[in-house]
Fold:
Amino acid sequence: MRWQWSTTLLHAVAWLTLTSSGMATSPFSFSVRSDVNTSEIYPSTRLTRYGGWIPSPVVYNSFIHKHRVIASGRMSNGSAHIPAVAEFERAIKSDPVMTELWNQIFLQVSPLNQVPGFDGLLYMLDQVLVEPPSFHMARDAQGNIIQGESIGVPVYVLMDLLANTGAAHDLFRMPAYAAALKKMLNSWGTYLTSPDSNKTLTDDVEGWFGPTALASLQSADRGTFDSTYVVPNPNMTSRGFPSFDAFFTREVQDSARPILNPDDSSLIVSACESTVYRIAKNASLHDQFWLKAQHYSLYDMLNHDNDLATQFVGGTVYQAFLSPQDYHRWRSPVDGVISKVVIVPGTYYAALPDEGAPADDPDFPEGDPHGAAIRSQAWIAHSSARALIYIKSDNPKIGLMCFIGIGMGEVSTVDVTVKKGQQVKKGTELGMFHFGGSSHALLFGPQANITFADDVQLDTHHKVMSTIAQVS
Ligand SMILES: *[C@@H]1O[C@H](CO)[C@@H](O)[C@H](O)[C@H]1NC(C)=O
Ligand SMILES: *[C@@H]1O[C@H](CO)[C@@H](O)[C@H](O)[C@H]1NC(C)=O
Ligand SMILES: *[C@@H]1O[C@H](CO)[C@@H](O)[C@H](O)[C@H]1NC(C)=O
Ligand SMILES: *[C@@H]1O[C@H](CO)[C@@H](O)[C@H](O)[C@H]1NC(C)=O
Ligand SMILES: *[C@@H]1O[C@H](CO)[C@@H](O)[C@H](O)[C@H]1NC(C)=O
Ligand SMILES: *[C@@H]1O[C@H](CO)[C@@H](O)[C@H](O)[C@H]1NC(C)=O
Structure:
């Protein structure tokens, strides 16, 4: 902790020197804050609710610090941005409203923020968007590893505190902003399907098959990697995945995720490997979002389709989120017929700004501003880029239900692999998330009397295709 504090301080000084000496000029204000002792704020805790999205403070700060050092060097060099970042910069700086909102974000952000202004962020993105995600080892001054964790969603880590501002809430919801950002993220998505992106699929200390990473991929009772997933070549360290995307969208072996009682049409299975975020009964057509009490508003979730939304009024919403370590494909929770598929373009990294973690937060101290997007998941289900897959269940007691795949950050592509009219069985693949943080929801109408299994509680992790509920 002491190391983390002192290097952060040193680096803040270096960055200020750099900007005040005129080597780099920026129309954006730099506000480097170094007046906070992070080790006093964070207890050493194992993050659970933020499940794999937010690394522990040591790793989080070390990751940002590493990128600040490289960005600072490139900025003093006057290095050009990579094409996708340069295009994003042009889109923002040619628009006075978007430019001003970025200024406001840096004025409003928590003093814990370590991203040094919009230009600094662009230089950091230059590095992140040409690399596959990896693990990150925080080291002490002698280079010894203190702690290592996955940076499962690196751009999210850069955006995390910035998103928790009123200005970001306004900016990130602008369709022109979301489109510019998505274009930049898509160039990363293309890279992640390239052969070069397999370079973190190694057993190096920061690789995905190193000891720290494998332990995390196999945690929460997920099973050993080779016996759980479909592995192209178990003899290779990379397991033969040709790209990071292939690794991320890996298939699961049927024997590792069996469906118990597949013929019992009253049982509903988990569509994703995920951690329960919220279960809400008696859903409303329209609802308002207040800071703490986020209700579900069916009309907004279902992209303003009044006829379909009305059919779910009074029904049940089940929402659960996926960690970067989880399996990323979606499986049908019921037997039935696909009645409609809708892809909704939406926001990336947008959050409901809040006053920080609540008093009963399992991971962060009360008032900690990190993780607002994770706390905003109910709201994100109404705003994010998402896929709506309506399924008419063969069991009339279930009737029409809807699966919603919700992209939350990073590339966030929702890829539907079923078509209208297609018959699906429980466990049939519906689609997948390409790289990104994600959540999902299941909607049931008022006709479906859904009882969740006793072990389906908030913050519990459930394997894909395990039984989560029964209709009676
Ligand atoms: C930060 O807080 C920790 C815990 O109270 C303390 O041990 C450490 O000395 C502080 N660091 C500085 C630079 O004040
Ligand atoms: C400056 O740029 C060159 C070439 O782009 C690079 O090799 C060098 O490491 C950069 N310097 C710093 C301090 O990053
Ligand atoms: C892996 O190695 C085993 C034993 O050497 C061999 O029998 C098998 O064919 C190899 N598998 C692949 C996919 O290369
Ligand atoms: C990545 O793929 C290339 C072939 O495209 C292969 O030569 C290389 O060994 C692979 N890297 C890893 C870490 O498996
Ligand atoms: C469901 O919500 C409606 C409208 O808010 C309310 O009138 C009704 O009493 C609620 N039903 C139950 C069972 O809570
Ligand atoms: C819903 O199911 C539960 C559990 O089987 C049952 O106790 C309850 O009476 C049912 N409610 C209705 C309205 O049918």
